[in-house]
Amino acid sequence: MEVSNITWAGKFAEKLLEVTSEWIWAVYNDIQEPKRLEQQWEIMAENEKKMIIARAEWMAEAMKIWAKAELEIRAMQRLSFEEVKKQENIESIIEWASQMSDWEVSDEKLDEDWITRFFNIAGEISSEQMQVIWSKILAWEIKQPWSYNLRTLQVLRNINQSEANIFSKILPLINSSWHIIKIWFNNHTNNKIFDYVGVTFSDFLKLQEADLMNTREDLITNYSKNTPYYIKITNKIIQFTSPVDFNLNIYSLTWEGIELFNLLNNDIKKMKIILKN
Length: 277
Prior knowledge:
Layout: H1 11-20, H2 25-97, H3 112-122, H4 128-143, H5 150-158, H6 161-170, E1 179-181, H7 192-197, H8 201-209, E2 213-214, E3 220-223, E4 228-233, E5 236-241, E6 246-253, H9 255-265, E7 274-276
Parallel strand pairs: 5-7
Antiparallel strand pairs: 1-6, 2-6, 3-6, 4-5
C-alpha cells in the first residue's frame, strides 16, 4: 500500500499526516498545495480589494482637493473684482475732491484712523451722487481735520441715494437753529410749504430712520415776546416780533444731520427776502 492512496480525511488522519510529514514530505506538499494556493488567492483578492478601496479613497480625496482649489480660485476672482471696483470708487471720489484744490488748508495732519475709516467706506460708494457727497467730506477734512467725526461717517455710510435726495429737498426749510418749523394743516395731510419742496410726512420719517432727523411730536422751539426773530421758510426769511410768548412745533436735525446740512448747504445759493411785520 502506498501513502499516496491514503485518504487523508478526519482529525486523526490530519494529525497522522502532521506527525509523519517529515517522512512523507512530498505527499504532504501535494495535499497541502491546494490549500496554500487557495490561501494565496484569498490574500491576493484581499490585497486587490484594499487597493481598490485605497484608490477610491484617493480619488475622492483628490476630488475634494480639486473642488476646494476651484472654490479658492472663484473666491480670488471675486475678491479681485471687488477690490478693483472699490479702487475705482475711491479714485472717482478723489477725482471729485481734486476739484476743490484751490481751497486753503490747515497745517494740522489728518487722523490715521479717520483716513482708514473714510477710505474703507469710500470703496463701497458707487453712485455718482453719493461719490460727490463723499468727495466733499474728504475735501472739508483736508481743509480742516475733524470737520466730520467717525460716527458721522458711519451714519452717512448707511444712507442711500433716495434718502440723500429727500435731505437735499428739505435744505431750504432748515433754519439757522438746524430745525424745521412745522405748520401743518388737516392732521399731517396738508402742508403747502412741504408741498413746495416736494416732500411728505413719510419722507421725514425716512430721514429719522436714517439718523438724520428727529420727528418727535413734543419737540418745540420757544419764542419770547417783544424779541425780533427770523424764520426761514423755503427761500424766504421772515422777520417778526410777537407781543406774547409762544411755541412752535419743529423737526430737529441730529448731529449727523447737522454735519450733512453744513456739507450740502455750502453749495446752495440762497435768496433772502425779508418780510417785516
